[in-house]
Specification:
InterPro entries: GH (IPR017853), GH13_cat_dom (IPR006047), O16G_dom_2 (IPR045857)
Pfam families: Alpha-amylase (PF00128)
Radius of gyration: 24 Å
Shape: globular
Distance between the termini: 20 Å
GO molecular function: hydrolase activity
Family: Belongs to the glycosyl hydrolase 13 family.
Mean pLDDT: 91
Organism: Streptomyces sannanensis
């Protein structure tokens, strides 16, 4: 027989007053692609504000906004020209203020991006540095160095950009006749771990530290609840900027030990920021986008006096394999236990191929993505949901080259070059030129098949991925055994993960065939309905089930 699915559980007591982030579900909004209020085809702050009731109804606790600051948009806003101004593409400061107030009125917290590793090349500081003499005081805020070789025409070291190609660009000066700029005499080069339009800041310079303390205060005073720290592992470089010794592209998320990532000096900066966050009421938080070569190194970013969360990229990158998944979960929890920090699970974001597509094409990818979502939401700690994953959106892999905007796509051997495919605006309605994204079109085209994946089409359909997420998030809030806390593994057949929490069991069948095991309890929720007969249950292939015990 088929056991009836239900979402009723005994409501838990109220959440503790402190530590909201320890089990929060936080929804990432890629600002350009969430909702467009003015019909220019680009998402904006007013569009987000108008759609906040959807997020409150989905059941998330907070919203993370990607950069909306003044920017030439060379890298989707991660090249910031003014950290205290809203880019006109997205609105103005009044829109930001109203968004925060509206979110708070709906019980949602707001986290904003801060980009401390680099600025735009249009930032006033870099304009001053570029116009000044080599070796001048203005250039000390960045990494300017003379080139190697007899004439300084070789980069200062062998570092490669995450986006592909050298991590150094030689400064240029106008030729004086209104023509093409020429390399600057003296051989000065500037460092950019990302695009040339994103020069790296020198965090040994006191003005850099003072400026970012002021920027953080500006947004905290406006009322934001925290910051996602972009490239939190990259602000400090090894003394002397040593060669890597091998010409290979740097990976933002990888296993390399590099002289410009995960240097110990970043932790002093994060401690300073933690003291600032703690000086404000309302439990403001810092979230590290930090690559580290091991879970133990990642745990250093969330020691009690540093940041509150750090994305678990090892989990994100883990293949659909029971043994590998269990190892990543075990290693992550073991590394965090000594520092008392919660795990922060994530499956997708604006920088990676959507997990549905990573897990496989078509129906198989969707089955695994739905199961992985329930697994993630059942694990101890906090979780992040990337916009559209609750709709089961796949990666868009057939965008025409002339529409792409990811800078890594245009640089040889760049990091994937596929980031545009996960940034296509999400569909709200079945019809319309942009499926409800806005009154006009969208800056990247949506596939025709997305009408059936829209929020309108999925709402109220009990078999839809959207309703699966809604039920899961409701259960997660109500069930005392979900969120922060402990877990332990249970015996299970090969290919099946099973673990218990307080009054709760989660079973995940990663295999391509059904699996049979004793009934753990009463079904709360499943990504595909299990069949029970007497005391045994048949778990469908590539599915996850939640049980009350």
């Amino acid at each position: 027989m088929t056991q009836e699915l239900t979402t009723d559980v005994t409501p838990s007591t109220a959440r503790p007053a402190r530590g909201w982030w320890r089990d929060a579900v936080i929804y990432e909004v890629y600002v350009r692609s969430f909702a467009d209020s003015d019909g220019d085809g680009i998402g904006d702050l007013r569009g987000i504000r108008d759609r906040l009731p959807y997020l409150a109804g989905l059941g998330v606790d907070a919203v993370w906004l990607t950069p909306f600051y003044a920017s030439p948009q060379a890298d989707g806003g991660y090249d910031v020209a003014d950290h205290r101004a809203v880019d006109p593409l997205f609105g103005d400061l009044a829109d930001a203020d109203e968004l925060v107030r509206t979110a708070h009125g709906l019980g949602l917290r707001v986290i904003v991006d801060i980009v401390p590793n680099h600025t735009s090349d249009q930032h006033p500081w870099f304009r001053e540095a570029r116009a000044g003499r080599h070796g001048g005081a203005a250039r000390a805020r960045y990494h300017f160095h003379k080139g190697r070789g007899a004439h300084g025409d070789l980069p200062p070291n062998d570092w490669e950009s995450v986006f592909g190609g050298p991590a150094w660009t030689r400064t240029e000066v106008p030729d004086g006749n209104g023509g093409t700029s020429q390399p600057e005499a003296g051989g000065e080069w500037y460092l950019h771990l990302f695009a040339p339009e994103q020069p790296d800041l020198n965090w040994d310079h006191p003005e850099v530290r003072e400026e970012f303390t002021s920027v953080l205060r500006f947004w905290l005073d406006l009322g934001v609840d925290g910051f996602r720290v972009d490239v939190a592992h990259g602000m400090v470089k090894a003394p002397g900027l040593p060669d890597i010794g091998a010409r290979e592209q740097a990976e933002l998320i990888g296993s390399q030990v590099l002289p410009f990532f995960d240097q110990d000096g970043v932790h002093e900066i994060h401690r300073t920021w933690r003291r600032l966050l703690d000086s404000y009421g309302g439990e403001r938080i810092g979230v590290a986008e930090a690559w580290a070569p091991s879970p133990e190194r990642l745990a250093l970013y969330v020691r009690p006096d540093e940041l509150h969360q750090a994305f678990n990229f090892q989990f994100l990158r883990c293949p659909w394999d029971a043994d590998r998944m269990r190892a990543v979960i075990d290693d992550s929890l073991a590394a965090l236990r000594p520092v008392g920090a919660p795990a922060t699970w994530v499956l997708s974001n604006h920088d990676v191929v959507r997990h549905l597509t990573r897990y496989g094409d078509g129906a198989g990818g969707l089955r695994r993505a739905r199961a992985a979502a329930l697994l993630m939401l059942a694990l101890p700690g906090s979780a992040y949901v990337y916009q559209g994953e609750e709709l089961g959106l796949p990666e868009v892999t057939d965008l025409p080259d002339h529409l792409r905007q990811d800078p890594s796509f245009f640089r040889a051997e760049g990091q994937d070059g596929f980031r545009d495919g996960c940034r296509v605006p999400i569909p709200w309605t079945r019809d319309g030129s942009s499926h409800g994204f806005g009154p006009g079109g969208s800056w990247l085209p949506q596939p025709a098949g997305w009408a059936g994946l829209s929020i309108e089409a999925q709402s109220g359909d009990p078999a839809s991925t959207l309703e699966l997420y809604r039920r899961a998030l409701t259960l997660r809030r109500r069930h005392p055994g979900l969120g922060d806390g402990a877990m332990h593994w249970l015996d299970a057949p090969e290919g099946v993960l099973a673990f218990a929490r307080d009054g709760f069991v989660c079973t995940v069948n990663t295999a391509g065939t059904d699996a049979v095991l004793p009934v753990p309890g009463r079904v709360l929720l499943s990504s595909a309905a299990p069949e029970t007969t007497g005391g045994t249950v048949c778990l469908p292939a590539e599915s996850c089930t939640w049980w009350a015990i």
